[in-house]
Specification:
The chain has two helices and seven strands, in the order H-E-E-E-H-E-E-E-E. The chain is of the alpha+beta class. The chain has a seven-stranded mixed β-sheet, covered by helices on one side.
Length: 159
């Protein structure tokens, strides 16, 4: 009798497995999910908010040690690279979201205010400017880096 109940249990187990597997085919035939377009989020501004504080215009990143204090930095900017350049010079490159012509004009004006002579570099249409003061020389390159502007100084570190 025990032999017969074992066969019964085995038959019921097999039937359960077969029936359970049959439902997988039904699930596979379900229609694909519907795609719903999501509207863009709300644009929130602080316009009209009397408690809102304007974000300061700032430099993101750290200028390298020995960067000359009399080379102006256009703000807002982010330091993206610095290191050794040719002939014992060092270089620092920065990015700003503002347009190239605006950045170049502001930097050249500030350089002249700090006593630098600004001269065109290689070629009449060059973006590279030679900067000079008695006993000192540096270079400034301003170029498009859409959507903003990249500018780079090549300089000898202050000692």
């Amino acid at each position: 009798m025990a032999h017969r109940s074992a066969w019964t249990w085995l038959a019921l187990l097999a039937l359960g497995v077969v029936c359970g597997c049959g439902r997988t085919a039904e699930r596979a035939a379900e229609p694909p999910l519907e795609t719903v377009e999501v509207t863009p989020g709300l644009e929130v501004t602080t316009e009209g908010d009397q408690q809102a504080k304007p974000r300061p215009v700032e430099l993101t990143g750290v200028l390298p040690p020995g960067f000359p204090a009399d080379l102006p930095i256009y703000l807002p900017s982010s330091v993206v690279d610095f290191g050794a350049a040719a002939s014992g010079y060092r270089q620092v490159e920065l990015l700003t979201p503002h347009p190239r012509d605006q950045v170049a004009a502001v930097l050249e004006q500030r350089l002249r205010q700090k006593g630098w002579t600004v001269a065109s570099g290689e070629g009449a249409r060059s973006n590279r400017k030679r900067l000079s003061k008695p006993g000192r020389e540096a270079w400034l390159e301003v170029r498009d880096a859409r959507p903003g502007t990249a500018f780079r100084y090549d300089y000898r570190p202050e000692t």
